[in-house]
Amino acid sequence: MLPDNSKSHTRRKFINKVSAVALGSMLFGSYANARQDKKREVMNTKRTAGKLGIALVGLGKYSGGQLAPALQETEHCFLAGIVTGTPEKAKDWKSKYDIPDGNIYNYENFASIKDNPAIDIIYVVLPNALHAEYVIKAAAAGKHVICEKPMAINVEECDRMIDACKKTGVMLSIGYRLHFEPHTQEMIRLSKDKVVGKVKKIIAKDGMSKVEGWRLNKALAGGGPLMDVGIYCVQGACYVSGMDPIAVKAKEGPKTKPEMFRDIEQSLSWEMEFPDGTIAACESSYAEDMNLLHVDAEKGWFELSPAYSYRGITGKTSEGKIDLPGVTQQAGQMDDFAMAIKDKRATPVPGEMGRRDLKILMAIYKAMDSGQRVEIS
Ligand code: NAD
Fold this sequence. Notes:
Blueprint: H1 4-48, E1 52-57, H2 61-70, E2 77-83, H3 87-97, E3 104-105, E4 121-124, H4 131-140, E5 144-147, H5 155-168, E6 172-174, H6 182-192, E7 199-207, H7 218-221, H8 225-241, E8 247-252, E9 267-273, E10 279-285, E11 290-297, E12 301-304, E13 315-317, E14 320-322, H9 329-343, H10 351-370, E15 374-375
Parallel strand pairs: 1-2, 1-4, 2-3, 4-5, 5-6, 7-10
Antiparallel strand pairs: 7-11, 8-9, 8-15, 9-10, 11-12, 12-13, 13-14
Helix pairs in contact: 4-5, 5-10
The structure holds nicotinamide-adenine-dinucleotide (NAD).
The site of nicotinamide-adenine-dinucleotide has 20 residues, from helix 2.
């Protein structure tokens, strides 16, 4: 039997040994971590070199489902930061997209983004009624801005947003992704080049049968399906005709669920009249799935259906199929804006286009409420 003191000596030796192993593995661990961090830093620098940093404001379905994935494909910009009111989302996004703590903001400290040189562009992806406030704040922070559609909930807000961006010398664009989509470009070409003659009539329909949350609340959405998806019909008619409408007529209905659509329309149909006499007959709904852009011309027709989806846009003409590849529209849209900033050229989807569309939407609501033809000046 060993005397007590040798027992404690053995224990001490054992503890020393264990401590040495623990220290070794700690040192190795921190060395390995440092190497890992360095490797990540090098990879991030490579991934982001020469690109503009985008911060997404509002991490809802569109940011999470479309914009963040598209930002993994972009060549001229990357997902540099986020603005969210939900700490759990910040944690998830940080680990999923490797976003540094210094580039994570909430709505309270949003203004301090002005001091962050890693953020070049702020992308506002909030409910419609919050667009104006955050675009104006982004402009005040000296950052270029992308604002989701609809640009705002009235024309006066659009004016304030455009003025704020002009005042601080930042660029403003609207998230009109379809301008960067090949089938849409082909529709514009077919019309412009009068491939099957001059355009006579346009039919545009966009609707969805499932809707929830802030989209049903007029104070946050500014209106019903017209503001949300009908805006694509307005856009379609304008880019295909290459003109702005001079007058509109509109009719609300049908409304089969008045308890759900208390202060917004459930569905509507409207007509847009263009300066050369071309008519666009449009429909939008929160009760029916519809997705069409059809054009009748003098010697034939051409159409997309679906016409406004994120993917799977399909087209045909009276002469045959429109055979073009699908693209990640949001990647093209954000890359084009980043290049416009770098090249100091105009964006094809500026705030002024968002404002034009709000003017048309407001005229459609006025025509719907009054039952009268409303002229757009
Ligand atoms: P969503 O409801 O999924 O996300 C909205 C986000 O805003 C959420 O993260 C929510 O937490 C946040 N938020 C902050 N303040 C809020 C408030 N007061 N009330 C409600 N939410 C608040 O909506 P979404 O579908 O991502 O739409 C966001 C914007 O993007 C809208 O303007 C919409 O029109 C637009 N959008 C555009 C496209 C497109 O194809 N370009 C597609 C979908 C949505």
